[in-house]
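Hi R.,

As promised, here are both runs. First protein below:
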Amino acid sequence: MKPNRSMAMQQLIEQVRVAMPFDLPEANLCSGKCNGCSQKLLDYLDMELEDWEYRLRVGEEPDFGEIQRIAKTSKKIYRVMQKNNLVK
């Protein structure tokens, strides 16, 4: 059985929260050469995820484009984290 759009967004948020280094200290995020500001990117992504977590709690259902946008943004930020050696 396929999940509905709200469940799909919730699952995506959970996957992103597990994959991203949100809990790293700022000193570890900003060490040496950067390919993008890891701290700012993680802050941005965290705000986007928190916004959707709230919206899901109040019963809003995302459309497929919104799910795709969060997935695409998350993938791009994940690649930056890889380049900055913050994830494997």
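And here is the second one, sequence first, then its structure tokens:
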Amino acid sequence: MLGVDKIIFGSDHFARSQRNLYGNFSYILERAFPDPEERGMILGGNIARILDCE
């Protein structure tokens, strides 16, 4: 409904193994957004655009 250009990924979750934590988020994002370009937008592209850091 909102569109992928309005989603920004962020987390303040702390885990002993950040690698495993990122793997879990990556797994979920891959299923929710199968297009790699859309995932790229969510994982940094959108915030870069908003902050004019592209």
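A quick note on the second one: The radius of gyration is 12 Å. Let me know what you think.

Best,
J.
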